[in-house]
Design brief:
Mean pLDDT: 95
Helix content: over 70%
CATH class: Mainly Alpha
Number of helices: 12
Oligomer: single chain
Length: about 260
């Protein structure tokens, strides 16, 4: 069995992947982005069903929900898709001048809006499917509680939770690059992702599923302005957490210092 890649090798791999992502054709990038939005929707759907009716207590229920929510990133990494929050890591390639700022923001914008389409479409299909009526409406109540709690956060809380969330998401992606096997990548994903879910952190792409689905249900009053404001704040937090707290920190440690010693 091969040893896991070391941190410096991971940084080099992420930089190389970042260059490839930044140069990906529009159709491929947007299609993979739509898939990622749908995959996060699947994980969110699984989470909602799993925690409904749980008698395990707050902590264990959140932990179990986080484990099943990990399905979303597992599908993205193993099956292949483009997730905005994970792609915050490609700022490493920009910092090393391997891609331009225009290429970086092109990738982020295309993937972000493609994720939105995928998550929104999944929410609409779930609404039409009648799944929320399961358990005499218990699943619908869980979904409404999730969305209502998200909207009740203050802007500062949403921002900080978004920042901490994507630090863990990007650490999950970082750990995936260390693994050589599918099993190894799955285990690398589960712990950071289940941690962010259990702790109640905020993921912009998951919010693109949860909040619209609550709106579609017609049982809560959330305006489009309120939803988009929440999404903007959480997204900014996600960018700071993934790009600065994780990606740029590791770039300073392993790639910037490498250039100084060459």
């Amino acid at each position: 069995m091969e040893d896991a890649y070391k941190p410096k090798q991971i940084a080099q791999l992420i930089e190389a992947v970042g260059v490839a992502k930044a140069n990906m054709p529009f159709l491929q990038l947007s299609t993979l982005g739509i898939l990622a939005g749908a995959f996060i929707g699947f994980g969110s759907m699984f989470y909602t069903m799993t925690i409904t009716g749980s008698t395990l207590g707050l902590g264990p229920t959140k932990l179990l929900g986080g484990i099943v929510f990990s399905l979303g990133l597992i599908l993205i990494v193993i099956a292949g898709a483009e997730l905005f929050t994970g792609n915050n890591m490609i700022i490493i390639a920009w910092a090393d001048k391997k891609i331009t700022g225009k290429q970086l923001f092109r990738n982020w914008l295309i993937v972000y809006f493609a994720n939105f389409i995928g998550a929104l479409a999944t929410a609409w299909f779930v609404h039409l499917s009648g799944i929320l009526s399961t358990g005499d409406g218990a699943v619908a109540k869980t979904l409404i509680d999730i969305a209502t709690n998200k909207m009740a956060l203050t802007p500062l809380e949403s921002f900080i939770r978004g920042m901490l969330c994507n630090a863990l998401v990007c650490l999950a992606v970082w750990l995936c690059f260390a693994a050589h096997t599918v099993t190894g990548k799955m285990f690398a994903i589960i712990f950071p992702i289940s941690a962010f879910v259990a702790l109640g952190f905020e993921h912009s792409i998951a919010n693109m599923y949860f909040i619209p689905l609550a709106i579609f249900s017609g049982t809560v009053e959330i305006s489009m302005i309120e939803f988009l404001t929440n999404l903007l704040i959480v997204t900014l937090g996600n960018i700071i957490g993934g790009s600065l707290l994780v990606a740029m920190t590791y770039w300073v440690c392993y790639l910037k210092s490498e250039k100084k010693t060459d």
